[in-house]
Amino acid sequence: MTKQQERLVGEAPAVREAPPAGQYERYVGGTPEVERAIFEKLARDLMRVQLRIKKRSGAAAIERTFHAKAILGVENARLRFQPDLPEDLRTGFAQPGAEYPVIVRLSNASGARQPDFAPDLRGAALRIQVGPDQAHDLLMTNYPVSHARNAREFVAFAQAMAGADSTLRKGIAVYAKLPLAVGWSTAARMRRNVTAGTGREVRSLALETYWSRGAILWGDAGPVRYRLRPAAGASAAPPPSRSDPDYLGYELSERLARADVVFDLCVQRYEDARSTPIENGAADWREEDAPVVPVATLTIPRQDLDTAAARAIALQVDQLAFDPWNTTDEFRPLGNLNRARKAAYEAASAHRRGYRFRTPTPKRNVVVGGFLRSGFRVLNRFVPWHKLPTWLGLLNIEALRQVLRRDNLIDTEIREAVPKAHPVASPIDERLRVRRTYDGTYNDLSAPKMGALGSAFGRNLPPVYRPDLFDTPNPVTVSRELLHRDTFIPARSLNIIAAAWIQFQVHDWVEHKRHQSVEVPLPPGMTWTNTPGGAPETVMRFADDEGVRPAGGAEPPILSANAASHWWDGSEVYGGDESVAKSLREPNGSAALHLENGHLLPGPDGIPITGFRDNWWLGLSVMHTLFAREHNAVCEALRSEYPRMDENTVYHTARLVISALIAKIHTVEWTPAILATELIDIGLTANWAGPPQNWLTRLGLWLVDAHALTGIPETLPDHHNVPYSLTEDFVTVYRMHPLIPDDYQIADHRSGRTLGTLGFNDVQGSATETLMRKAGLTNSLYSLGIAHPGAITLYNYPRALQAFERNGEIIDLSVVDLVRTRRRGVPRYNDFRAGLHKTRLRRFEDLTSDPDTLARLKDVYRTVDDIDTMVGLYAENPPEHFGFSDTAFRIFILMASRRLQSDRFLTVDFRPEIYTPLGLDWIERNGMKSVILRHCPELAGFLPRTASAFAPWRPTMPERRDRV
User: Fold this and answer.
1) Which of 370, 643, 871, 881 is the most buried (most CB within 10 A)?
2) How far apart are CA 625 and CA 57, in angstroms?
3) Which of the two residues, 17 and 888, has the higher pLDDT score?
4) What percent of the chain has pLDDT over 70?
5) Is the pLDDT of residue 461 over 50?
6) What does the DSSP 8-state code read for residue 440?
7) How many C-beta atoms surround the C-beta of residue 550 within 10 A?
8) What is this structure's pTM?
9) By the 8 A CB rule, do 230 and 209 touch?
10) From CA 24, how far away is CA 217, in angstroms rounded?
11) Is 278 found in the same domain as 390?
12) E strands present in 792-912
């Protein structure tokens, strides 16, 4: 809107509460919720239509699905309501004599930019600017009825006609494709309407009448259809050209150079469901049933369209997204077609503007993929995927991931039931296109709140919410019998840095807010001290999740909000909101994070001030310190390479680089270390960099999933039809506390001399930083690098965490893990594995053959269906060289690629314009080893030669005291 328009708008009239529109409407499937899901699919279908049109037309960019070619775009039109406006039509902004500025776009109707003389409908779009925060979009076409009765027919027609740019293709579309989609009689009726609408001679868009075809609510007056017709006295136009592809534009330009162009805005009132139907867009509202009532005059003033200023305005108007739902609820659109347009216009507009993406699946992938999925389902009854040859195992995993994407992504977003009108969206701040926000908003530009701090956890499995089983069997008994560590069981293929790393990552991904206390009854004869120095009690007490609430009623499924952003954005380093992030930077406005002699600054409680500071221990201190230093190194390199880059840009670019580097390290280094097989190494490397140049593997992927032929950073964002979020099931499989040892040996890397042997309580909380500064980052890394973490198995839960003092309470974290998993509605283990397409257990012996474990399981649980998810995951025999179970791995293969694939900054915006060439090169050249050696070069000789930095390091041989 221009400044002149802003002055003319003034105050918007008050918006009155509209009568319930639902009394006029009937929803597909019977309810708004069912209809919305259907329309979401239709919206995705229209995005495919846009891609097909782009491909067939050879256009450089995605166009509007319809009305691609603008004939006129002006922003200085005026709408003035009649001074004698009928009393019942006076509502909201529609008041006698009221006048508003209007943006006008006139266009051809096709989704391709075809010549003006080609048979086509024409369209008019008005944006009535009522006030700074209120506008009303009116969309019309120059034929009184739609070719489609409803949204399904509308989309079927669009799909059939997509890219039909020749007479032959159009004939095939309407006489072959369309009848197969909607039936012969419906197709015939649609052809008649289209022929009648497009076969008319159009001399000038100023002389056409435009109809809304669908109804809108007009306040207390109820539904109306509106139309825009030429005012009396409009001058005639010459015959249409048969050779000039832009004759309509030239005619309008010449007409406006001579005089104003004036239209009457009219309405027809709703009479009854028979004569003026709401849900049938192909039915005419005849004037004898619903008389036409003029309500306002639209004037497009005389002007010269052949100037640079006019062309610039036309270009701006052409970029706008007109939507009939850009209005108020008092004037909300009605009917099936209009409700479908809410999903369709939002999706198509976001697709066109590069906010939302669609990657079509090749037909061969649909056919061959379905065949292979069926084949592997049969094969896996006899041979599990991890026992197949590597190349066949990779295809098996790819087929399984497709099944999981189809069946195990559950949408938990709470949406409006009945569609609601909305104001015109404000333009997106240009800075949000090139940097991560502090709270995770605007990663998906079409859905700014998706994955942001506070958004709900998703689900991979339908929740099983059983309050009657929260304490059955007693979680304290489960912990003591099946989890308690008597003897440390090491994971000999890893070092403790691997344990620290996964906690470092989990703190980026997930956090449940805590509030009121949960009370867990103790087994008979047992007491627990819940606070330091407190009296023994017969219950164990700890904080519950905040924000657990039913969705859409008083019963489950339950939802819980994530107190971190769901994106892989380094929030554990940078903080989850703007105030925290800015407080971590140097106070002089520098892009660098504030360090004190290379160490994090301690807070008043002795724990460093950083992005996420809960559950602090030596391993976390090492990770945070290392990557704070790495951030500052990236900042220094950016300043050197780009001396004109300001400090805020340096900071945000460095954050992008560090976040992507962390994602790369986790994908191609940490995960193959804990799942140490050739198949996983190839698969995870392919996730980042694409599959190996092995013709058999590439042929298989070409047949099954062509999108996997490149690394995810070279693809477009894809949420796989469900809004992105991390899930409660994902949280469950990442319960890896057995990795934590109970004692630690701190050693000097130069001599191998032991500096101290400490228990976990000596290396956690406020004691951490004193130790960290005394030992130094180099010795701390060395000490963690040469020692093993615990194995993720039964009987290996850290003793220190089973009587853990935190925030003024004493908790048994193993009990907390069990209780919270139950209360979050995560299915018990047998249902969990079955939901992930594994065979159900029929007896305890199907889970383990160990006699002691069998006896304990049978003693604790009544049936195999009662086994806790965490217990089952720990008890399950993992594939060879795996650090955790195959059941947990299934959540992993689904969510690991999803965290990358959904993220704009790790796909379509993983490019030098956003990261800078230096930034992309930094990510490409670096990994965990190089990060360690940049800040601790003395460790070069201790790192593994042929394995990642998460494998055990070479220890220094201590000096022999008896040496002469």
Assistant:
1) 871
2) 54
3) 888
4) 95
5) yes
6) S
7) 12
8) 0.90
9) yes
10) 10
11) no
12) 804-806, 809-811
Is residue 138 within a helix (H) or strand (E), and if so which, with residue range? strand 134-141
pLDDT confidence of residue 17 = 42
- 691 in the same domain as 647: yes
Please report, as a single letter, which amino acid is at residue 934: R
Q: Same domain for 377 and 327?
A: no
Q: In this structure, are 22 and 106 located in the same domain?
A: yes
Give residue for tokens 């010269």: 304
Compute the distance between CA of residue 899 and CA of residue 668 in angstroms, rounded to an integer.
14
- Whether the bond between 490 and the residue before it is cis, its omega within 30 degrees of 0, is no
Q: What HEC string does 84-123 produce?
A: CCCHHHCECCECCCCEEEEEEEEEECCCCCCCCCCCCCEE
Ramachandran angles phi, psi of 613, nearest 5°: -120, 10
CA distances from 719 to 353, 359, 445, 722 (A): 18, 10, 13, 6
Active site (annotated) includes residue 507: yes
- The single residue of 67, 351, 386, 507 carrying the catalytic annotation is 507
Please enumerate in sequence order all residues whose Cβ is within 8 A of that of 371, keeping only pairs 6 or more positions apart, or say none: none
Residue 438 phi, psi dihedral angles, 5° rounding: -70, -35
Structure tokens of 927? Answer: 């990994």
DSSP 471: T
Q: List, in order, residues 6 or more apart from 46 with CB less than 8 Å away.
A: 65, 155, 158, 344, 347, 348
**How far is residue 509's CA from residue 513's CA, in Å, rounded to a whole number?**
13
Burial class (CB in 10 A: 0-12, 13-18, 19+), 658: buried
Q: Each residue of 782-806: pLDDT tens digit? A: 999 999 999 999 999 999 999 988 8
Number of domains the chain is built from: 2
963 falls in which pLDDT band (50, 70, 90)? very low
| 382-386-389 Cα angle (round to 5) | 90
Q: Which domain holds residue 654?
A: 363-455+566-713+917-939
CA atoms lying within 13 Å on the CB side of residue 73: 20
| pLDDT for 7 | 32
For residue 111 the two structure tokens come to 């989704």
Contact (Cβ atoms closer than 8 angstroms) between residue 46 and residue 352: no
Cα 463–Cα 465–Cα 466 angle in degrees, nearest 5: 145
| 152 three-class SS | helix
Q: Output Rg (C-alpha) for the chain, integer angstroms.
A: 32
- In a shared domain, residues 116 and 250: yes
CATH code assigned at 926: 1.10.640.10
Cα–Cα distance for residue pair 410/461, rounded to 1 Å: 7
Express as a percent the part of the chain with pLDDT over 90. 70
Query: Which amino acid is present at 395?
Result: L
Do 272 and 393 fall into the same domain?
Answer: no
3-class SS string, 509-562: HCCECEEEEEEEECCCCCCEECCCCCCEECEEEEEEECCCEECCCCCCCEECEE
Cα three-residue angle 402-408-414, rounded to 5 degrees: 130
Asked if omega into 557 is within 30° of 0 (cis), the reply is yes
Q: Strand, helix or coil at 877?
A: coil
Residue that is written with structure tokens 């690098």 in the block: 785
